[in-house]
């Protein structure tokens, strides 16, 4: 499968990924090679990954706890301290083998350790393959608030090896699939139409490649998210608020990222119908597709009040305004849309119907 070239690095797939990694390690002459994993990827992904590395390198494995609740500065501090204790220098490299938590956090750790060392992302979840490891966004959460601290910094390369998907539960695959559906909604109606009828996850390689291509095209045009790149946040303004609320609320079960974003895309689909012209038939299709794949999230009146309070922390906000990405139609987004408070509450009513 053809590699995808971004601004300063490339995304390599399957066999080509290991060929390019080995060539790079041989050429770069790193002083030490650090590999960041969480408990899950240590158990299921590290051994097959290491088996493909050719050559004798000074490896050190760093393991963190799995899950979004550990994507924070405290975990970063632990990793920075381990790097220091193990004599990492500016000619070291950090290879992040894991899902979005590992690649986001690992990229941030590498970008800030000794003012920046090389890092390589090896996403092992569908979500990380199509979203978290592409585009140079790194960072961690601030309490329950998503991705409040971070930098945009590009990896040396990204390696997408689809065999790692065999280690995932189906719920995790569905979480990543939500981001792929989003790519169709914001850029490619034909892709959306193909994905909405997909009934199994056995042949995903070409679809992953297409999603990475869509995201890479957007990022190349707007690497620092001044305009176009904002479209990648469709469903995320409310979706991130939902995810954050469920993360910090002890009486609710945690939602995976894709599950929260799926709800967010229905909610913001309703706003799109009201404000930017999304046809009602397309809104109903969006709702039907997501609710056929993702369990409906139960929201009490108090839940909705608390979720809406979290919108003020959204990263797209400016000058006190909450800015939404909405759809004019499937495949055609509109950025920086202001939404009246009463419509936000109506969106939850529509979602619950």
Automatic annotation (TrEMBL):
Q: What class of enzyme is it?
A: lyase
Sorted UniProt keywords: Cobalt, Lyase, Metal-binding, NAD, Nucleotide-binding, Zinc
Supply the SUPFAM superfamilies for this chain: Dehydroquinate synthase-like
Cross-referenced InterPro entries: Dehydroquinate_synthase, DHQ_synth_AroB, DHQ_synth_fam, DHQS/DOIS_N, DHQS_C
Q: Which residues form the 3-dehydroquinate synthase C-terminal domain?
A: 176-317
- Highest taxon, organism lineage: Bacteria
Q: What is its EC number?
A: 4.2.3.4
Boundaries of each 3-dehydroquinate synthase N-terminal domain copy?
62-174
The cofactor named in the record is: NAD(+); Zn(2+); Co(2+)
Q: Which GO terms describe its cellular component?
A: cytoplasm
Q: Which CDD domains match?
A: DHQS
A Pfam family annotated for this UniProt entry: DHQ_synthase
Please give a single GO biological process term from the UniProt record: aromatic amino acid family biosynthetic process
Which is one GO molecular function term here? Answer: 3-dehydroquinate synthase activity
Job of this protein: Catalyzes the conversion of 3-deoxy-D-arabino-heptulosonate 7-phosphate (DAHP) to dehydroquinate (DHQ).
What's the name of the protein? 3-dehydroquinate synthase
Q: Which organism is it from?
A: Cellulophaga tyrosinoxydans
